[in-house]
Sequence to fold (445 residues):
Amino acid sequence: MNRRDLLKLGTLATAVTATSVFAASGTKEDIKSVQNAVKPLNNNDRVIIIGGGYAGLTVAKNIRLYNQKAEVIVIEAKNIFASCPYSNLWFGGVKGVDYNDLIFSPLKPASTYDYDIINDKVVSINREKKVVTTLNGSFEYSLLVLSTGIEYDYSTFGLDEKEAKKAFTKFPASYNGGFEQLSLKEKIEKFKSGTFVITVPKGSYRCPPAPYERAAVIADYFKSKKLNAKVVIIDPREKPTTKAKGFLKAFDTLYKDYLEYIPNANIKKIDLDKKTIYFEKNNLKEMETTNETLVFDDANIIPSNKASKLLKDSGLELTSDGFGRVKTPTFRSYNDDNIYLVGDVVGEYPFPKSAQMAHSCGIIVGEQIARRLNKEDPKEGSVYPQNVCYSLVSQDTGIYVTHQAYFDKADGKVKVKTEFFEDIEKSTFDATKSWYAGITANIFE
Fold:
């Protein structure tokens, strides 16, 4: 299936969903009537999972592995699963990687493990009544899982709401799967010369090494095509968020003429029409700050990340940077024992927001929920997630990092032990392929 076929499929699925919303009547009153028709529990437990990504689908499967009685429903607004992990390989034209490698259907695991998938958008959560309302109806729940991922926040780049929409359209972040990915791929393939900018988000964001990996493989692509082009990374930090030694070595040795890394750069404003970025450059050595500008020809503007607005609207406790709080050492919401937070939405713990961490936490939470439904000890805090994150720095070499979460009894906090493997090696590229095949098979087969 080529990209044109995928776009047709997406359009068709969207049309079907829209038709189902307005099938009974086109009036707002009839839509409200459908929403108010709450589907009751009917003497059975029901777990509703909002978000069908790496975390949500893993939770659904692992509930079912330990509990066959409860009704398990995954509600996902997107009508296609397009993976962000592994997408940088496709952007960089890595041999043997096709867009089909990013596309999966949750219907297969839903059938295998007997849970339901509903393609719909959640509009509200009534925690008091324990009711989730979507565009098409409302559902009572026994327990609720929020694995809603991230939303974009362009305000930290000095963009208002109107400008944010323009930035999203003209220079998509591609930190979500689907049409953003297709747009960025087209930009890369059509780029002939000049400056291609990648912005690194401020604050906590999804997949910390992703902007640097993306810059490396795009620079490799430009180099292979012998283009008069350069990738410029603008980073608010002093060095790359993670695997700094490995990335900086790759930038300096592999792409000296094709990649420029600008650290300590605080973006204040982006003029989208003039394609100009205004930023403060902090010179730590000289202890001075200068105002600078950068004109670009095209860009991948990755803005700051925040948790889904659904959390705030539902009155759930948030961290100072806008992600969900949980009760240490559990995954239960800080102020609602019947709601679990899993994946990128979590801000309480120092976990990297990665697919592997989401998957690892999903396995743990799925079993804990199943044990709770079985009236057993959920054994919260007895097992902690692990993470491995591979990053390519060329067509066939990479670096990686591992994380092991643990509970520090001394101060009562969940912490993470980190190990870096930053020698640029082909074996890491091979491990990347094996990891991706393994994690997707575990979820979708």
Observations:
- The chain has two domains: 3-149+308-381, 153-305.
- Residues 200 and 360 are 26 Å apart (CA to CA).
- The chain has a mean pLDDT of 92.
- The domain at 3-149+308-381 is CATH 3.50.50.60 (FAD/NAD(P)-binding domain).
